[in-house]
Amino acid sequence: MANTYTQLYFHIVFAVKGRQNHISRKWKAELYQYITGVISNKDQKLMIINGMPDHLHLLIGTKPNCNLSALVRDIKANSSKWINEKRLVAGKFEWQTGFGAFTLGQSQIPKVVNYIRNQEEHHKKQTFQEEYIDFLNAYKIDFNNEYLFTEG
């Protein structure tokens, strides 16, 4: 759209189904490159990606016409297919249903980039579940613990 100027940023978090430690150090860089391609092909911008063996964090800059749910669906579906076609894990690889998405202002980007970059160090002190609940509380998102980490 002509004369439309935006800066829309999302910190996205999603987990491996059952929070299994399936993302291997051996091939995670290749996975991250693949996901970067999926996002780029959707005409959006991946600023940083990192994670742990059981979950990923992405910082994405989007255009106003981006359907975030469809973008995350495509990232998860395509990357699952890629992992399974390459037989990178024993059995079938799947991402857990759902995701977290948190908006950011321009001034927050350096802090979030640093946070995502240092996932390994961060998770020496806090589990993924604790981290995720902290995000939900910080953004004042209502949630039900009973359904938060289901296997579906």
The average pLDDT value, as a whole number, equals 92
The proportion of residues in beta strands is 15-25%
Number of domains: 1
Query: Strands across the major sheet, in which order?
Result: 2-3-1-4
As a whole number of angstroms, the C-alpha radius of gyration is: 15 Å
CATH superfamily: Transposase IS200-like
- The CATH topology comes to Alpha-Beta Plaits
Helix content range of the residues, please?
A: 25-40%
**Class of secondary structure makeup:** alpha+beta
Record field, number of beta strands? 4
CATH architecture: 2-Layer Sandwich
Q: Unreliable segments (pLDDT under 50, ≥5 consecutive)?
A: none
Euclidean distance between termini CA atoms? 38 Å
Outline type: globular
Structural summary, described in words:
With 152 residues, the protein is of the alpha+beta class. The chain has one domain (8-148): Alpha-Beta Plaits (2-Layer Sandwich). 39% of the residues lie in helices and 19% in strands. The chain is built from six helices and four strands. The protein has helices at residues 28-41, 68-85, 109-117, 119-122, 128-138, 145-148, and strands at 8-15, 45-52, 55-62, 100-104. A four-stranded antiparallel β-sheet has the order 2-3-1-4, with helices on both faces. The mean pLDDT is 92.
